[in-house]
Amino acid sequence: MSELSQNPLYAYEGLPPFEQIEAAHVVPAIRAHLAQVESALAAHEQVVAPTWESAVVALRDIFEGLGRAWGPVSHLMGVRNSPELRAAYEEVQGEVVMLSLRAGQSEPLYRALRGLRDSAGWSNLTRGQQRIVEQKLQAAEQAGIGLQGEARERFNSIAQELSALGTTYSNHVLDATRAFGIDITDSAALSGVAATGLMLLSSAWNQAHNADTSTPESGPWRATLDMPVYLAVMEYAENRALREQLYRAYVTRASTGETDNLPLVQQILRLRREKAQLLGFENYAELSLSTKMADLPGVRALSEELLSAAAAVGPSELQQVRDFAAAQGESAELSHWDLPLWRRRLRESLYAYTDEELRPYFPLNKVLDGLFALLNRLFAVTVRPADGAVQVWHPDVRYFEMFNESGDKIAAFFLDAYSRPGLKRGGAWMNDCQERWLRPEGLQLPVAYLICNQTPPVGDRPSLMTFDEVETLFHEFGHGLQHMLTQVDEPEVAGISGIEWDAVELPSQFMENWCYHRATLLGMTGHFETGAPLPDATFDKLVAARTFQAATFMMRQLMLGMTDMSLHADYDARSGERTPLDVMTEVAARTALLPPLAEDRFLCSFSHIFAGGYAAGYYSYKWAEVLSADAFGAFTEVGLDNSEGIARAGRLFRDTVLALGGSVEPMEVYRRFRGRAPSTKALLEQYGFTV
Ligand code: ZN
User: Fold this and answer.
1) Could you list the active site residues?
2) I need a labelling partner for 306 at 20 to 30 A (CA). Which of 85, 281, 370, 400 fits?
C-alpha cells in the first residue's frame, strides 16, 4: 500500500499528473484497480437492484478509479510512446478489456437493467438516462446474453469464427500486398515519376531485398501495391505497360492461391447473416443499423438520390479527362490504369498550387486566432490560453480554457500540435480527457485532447501549416466542440459519448466547411514574413479544387457503399444462386463509369467491411457528408457574411447538435436544429450537381 500511495497514476486529484507518470507506474496502478473493480463488481452483482442508482450510478463509481488510471496510459501510448510504456500497456491491456466485457455481459446487471426498464420508475428518468439503460441492454443482447442453450453455444462459436476469419482476411491482404512487387533497374521505365515517388520506390526495393544499396537517383526501384508507392506510379509514370501491370495486380489482390479471400468472403457473409438471425434480425444489415442513426430505407433512398445526381455529371467528367488527354497527344482509349495519371495532370493544369506555396500563409498561431474568433462568432464562447495551469506530457503541449457568454468556465482542452517521430502516433485525433459529469460534490467539466502532427517551429520560423492541416485542425475541433459544449450531466451520454456511430462525424465535417468560406479563411492567414493574407486567386483555386471530378469520386464511394449494403441485406450465401462477385457486378453496372475488368476481385481486399468495423456501414461516409453539408446549409441560407444570422444559427447548432450529445436520438437532435429531416440538396449544390 505504501508503494501505491507513491504511485501518481493510482490516484490523483484533478487532471492527470503527466509530468510524474512513468512506465513503471502502469502495471501496479492498473492491477490494483483491476483487483478492486473485480471484487466490487462481484459484490455488487449480489445486491444490484432495478433502480437507476443501483444499476447505473453504482457502476460508474465502481469503474471510475480504473478509468482515471487507464485513460492517461492509453493517451500516453499515442503521444509519448516508449518501449517501456508499450510493454507495460500490453501486459495489462487484455485484463482491462476482459473486465469491461465481463461487466457488459453480467447476467445480474442485465436483469437489473431490464427490471428498471419495466419498472414504474422508468417514466421518471430523463430521456438521456433512458438511453443509457437502453444502450447497455442492447449491447448485452447483441453480445448474446438473451440466448440460451444451443443457440447460445452456436452464437459464441460464430463470434469466435468471425473474429478469426476477419484476422485471416486481413492477413491475406497484407501478405498478398507484400508478396507483389516489380523490380525496376532501368530509370527510363520510371520516367515521369516525381522525386518523392522515386524515394518511395527506392526504399520499397531496399525493404523487399533487405538491403540499403538502392538510392532514389540511381535505383534499383520497386513498384508495389503499398498505397503511396502505388499512387506514385499510377499518377505519374509515363510507362503505360507498367501502370497496367500494377493496376491488374491491385484489383486482383488476395484472390488466388494461399491468400485467396473469396471463400472467406462467402463464409463471413454466411456467418454474419446467421448471427443476425439468432438475434432476431432478418439480416446483418438490420443488426448493424439497429445501433445507428440511419435505417435501411433511409440509406437506400440517400444512395439513390446521390447516385442519380452524380451519374448525370460523371460521364462529362470522364469526357473532360479524355479530351484533355487527347489534346496532350494521347491517342489510346483511356483505361482504368490511365485515369489516375490524366486526372492528376488535368487537376494540376486547372488549379496549380502546391502545399509549400500555401504554407507561409498559415502560421499556427494565426490559424488558432482565426479559429477561436470563429467559435466566438458562432457559439459565443471565448477561448483563453492557460498554459502552466496544469501538467502536460511534453513542453510543446498547450492548455486552453473555454468560457461562455456569462464568463463561466465551461471546458478546457490540451493542444498537442507538432509531430514527434517515434514518440507520437501519426495523424490527428480528438479524445476525451474527462467528460462532463454532475456529481454530488459538484460539476466535473469536460476536458479534451486535441492532437495534430504538423511541422514544429524551426528557429524563429513559426509552425507553418498546409491547407490540409488547417482543415484537419478544424475537423478535430468539431469533435472537440461536441465534447466540450455538451450540456448533458450523465457521462455515458455527455459530449461524444453514446452518440450513434454514423452521426459522430457531423460536427467535425461541419467545421471543415468554414475553411472554404472566404472571410473566415483569409482572416486566419497572414504570411509569416510579410503578414499579407492569402491571395484571393489562390483561395479561388482551393475552392474549385474541392469539387474537381467530384461526381466520379462520389460514384466510386456509392459503388462501395451499395455493394456493402446489398451483400449484407439482400445476398444470401445459402441460396447458391449468385456469388458476392455477381452482387458487385450488378452494383457496378449502375455506378461505374468504366465497367470493372472481368478479373476484378476488389471484394478480396475490401478490408473496411470484411476486416474492419464498416460492415453494412460504409454508407456512413456519405451519410456524414450529407448531414454536415445540410447543417452548414442553415448558415449559407442566412448568408455567411450576415453576422446576426450566423450568430443565431450558431447558437441553435450549439444548443442542439453540440449540447445534447448522446442524450437524445440523433435524428431528433437533427430535427431540433434544422426543423426537418436531413436533405441531400445542400451537398449536391456544394458539388454543383443540382439538376
Ligand atoms: Zn472525425
Assistant:
1) 476
2) 281
